[in-house]
Specification:
34% of the residues lie in helices and 29% in strands. The protein is of the alpha/beta class and 341 residues long. The chain has 2 domains: 223 residues, Rossmann fold; 61 residues, Alpha-Beta Plaits. Strands 5-6-7-3-8-9 form a 6-stranded mixed β-sheet, sandwiched between helices. A 4-stranded antiparallel β-sheet has the order 11-12-10-13, with helices on one face. A 3-stranded antiparallel β-sheet has the order 2-1-4, covered by helices on one side. Strand 11 and strand 12 form a beta hairpin. Helix 4 packs across helix 5. The radius of gyration is 27 Å and the shape is elongated. It starts with a strand and ends with a strand.
Length: 341
Amino acid sequence: MSICEFSQVQKSYRSGWTYQRKMVLRGVDFEVREGETLALLGHNGAGKTTSIKAMLGLIHIDSGRIDFLGCRPGSKEALHQIGYLPENPYFYDHLTGREFLGLVGELHGLERSLCNRRSEEVLELVGMKDRAQGRMRGFSKGMLQRMGLAQALMNDPRFLILDEPLGGLDPVGRHQMRCILGELRQRGKTVLISSHILSDVESIADRAVILKEGSVAREVDLSAVDSGGRTWQIFFRNLSTRGKGALQAAGYEISGQQDGSSIEVADSEGLPNALRAIDEAGAHLLRVQPKRAEDLESIFVSTVADGHGDDPQRTRKQVGRILDSLTDVTRDSSGATEVVR
């Protein structure tokens, strides 16, 4: 079942002194399915935040349709079922954590007893129950992010929209946030998350929608993305012609490498037989290592790259040329380095 569906959504803004319209969303099509965690990805300016604002009814679209369980985006019926954490949330920092959640509960129309009970529940879930008595002006970035998630959960929403919830957090804070999102996933909450931290997204989300220049460039089933290295590579050298024939007869495809040759084994169970075959072929074993399949980062880069940023070697050469042009380094006869500016 679909919680939210975009159908050919277009949005433009007037920009500059000429007031010419700039297209931000160009026929966007995607859906958020009930019970899943969907990642909305893209480079800066790809249309992620604009899509979220349209979903919430904060902006009006030019054309197309956004369906939220049959409700109009921004209607009371829709907003009552949504919890939202913006990228840059604002807090009344003179309030304590509990006072802030009490205010959020009142805005949602919760009765006082239900509001108090819900506050304690979400504070425990986000790990802030023992610190919520302090004023929010003294909270760290990670604590504020957790309070932002807590307020998004106050109305027990059916659908959570989180814009950059991992931004600005240290490794410990990111780990804690991933654990919280994992718990929400286990509880069957539907979550839309927008983030640039792809390694975390890969461990949290079920699917990813990648936007490029205002259009959906690709949808990725993250359950099918292999990041665990289930395929194994065996490297060896000094393989004779006779030994090569024996390996090929056994069904192994031999690839030439810089330091010798290699074969691939589909799973760990096949490793002993492959190693035995290499030994019997008389080759010298070099190493065995897992082969990492295509991960979310490589998929993302290959999808959104403009043809220049997708080659690490080319990027390193470009950086090297720029650095060489900034500083001319010459060596004198003694071998010392003199910097000429």
